[in-house]
Amino acid sequence: MNSKQIQSLVPLLAPDEPYFEMMGRQISQRPHSLARRLQFALMDPGFLAHISESYALSRLPLPEFPWPAAVRRAYRFFLEPGAEDKHLAIAQKLQRPENKFERDVIRGLLLCQEATDEMIAKVFEVEPEVINLFELLWWRVRGRELLYLCQVLNGRYSLAEPRIDNESEELAVRLRRVGHQSVDPRAVLIEADLVGWADEPIPEAKLFEQLIRNFLEGLLACCQKGQLSKRELALLEKYLPALQDCLQTDSTSEDFFLAISMDKECQAKIKEFLQEQVTSKLKAQRLYMAMERGSKEADDYQI
After folding, report:
1. Measured between alpha carbons, how far is residue 89 from residues 10, 93, 127 in Å?
2. DSSP-derived secondary structure for 128-187
3. Structure confidence at residue 245 as a pLDDT band (50, 70, 90)
4. Side-chain half-sphere exposure of 80, counting CA atoms within 13 A
5. Is the distance from CB of 95 to CB of 87 less than 8 angstroms?
6. Per-chain mean pLDDT for the chain
7. How far apart are CA 31 and CA 10, in angstroms?
């Protein structure tokens, strides 16, 4: 469902419709304005799931609208808790707080241009339809407008999702940014410390290159927003003083990376700083691949 369709639907819904109860009540007890309701719906990646669930739990029929088949399917699922729909049940389970890490990785991968449903499903050992339903209902990012994607990339986007903790939220934001900025989905797996889950081993040079880019792009994005944490400032001061001249709030990404590409001393310090991470990730990758081989050899032996 795109923004034009949402803009057509929201004015047809009364302010007290079940979906808008997620917005909470104003102190004045007056209903939220149409502009506020429209903004809320347009910036909700889980709009279709939230519509389906809110009407089902209120035991009300869906509003008359040309809904995608997945919405009516989800509505039936939420209306009848015992309904058998294995793939939809798995997609919903991934929205639970205890599955936040897996959910954040999937969200990052769905923002990556070359990450297909099949590729993501293979990583998490589920059927491709689970990922398709995840994206359609809870994380609608494919083919969406730039303004909407900026909102998704840079902060909280849904009042329905509680904040867990700052460290966990920082990782979630990094995974989304890496997914959006990178063509190769392995970049998200590297950032999430899941290098062993890639389809094929990631060479050390590629791992180094991607780690450096992830690190620098995240640093630049935080600096431009004036949101460098105390930890990041301490790292800059102690390990990477050469970067401080490059990190100007008015610098573009191209200016930033050009300045670093011309500073060999800065490049050497960055590599030294990230060497421990690369070593750790390569070790994890080798361990995972060895376990995979051992599992297959055991299966072959049993056969």
Report:
1. 27, 6, 12
2. HHHHHHIIIII---TT--HHHHHHHHHS---TTS----HHHHHHHHHHHHHHHH-SSTHH
3. low
4. 7
5. no
6. 78
7. 14
Three-class secondary structure of residue 59 per DSSP = coil
| Angle at CA of residue 191, ends 188 and 197, nearest 5° | 65
Q: Which residues contact 62 (CB under 8 A, 6 or more apart)?
A: 51, 52, 55, 71, 72, 75
The residue type of 101 is F
| pLDDT at residue 298 in the model | 40
Is residue 69 within 8 A of residue 1, CB to CB? The reply is no
Domain spans in the chain, listed from the N-terminal domain onward: 34-144
On whether the CB atoms of residues 137 and 91 are closer than 8 A, the answer is: yes
Say how far apart CA 9 and CA 37 lie, in whole Å: 11
CA 264 to chain centre: 33
For residues 15-21, give the mean pLDDT.
91
The tens digit of pLDDT for each residue in 195-233 reads 655 556 666 666 666 666 667 666 666 666 666 666 666
Residue with tokens 């389809």: 199
Question: What's the one-letter identity of residue 114?
Answer: E
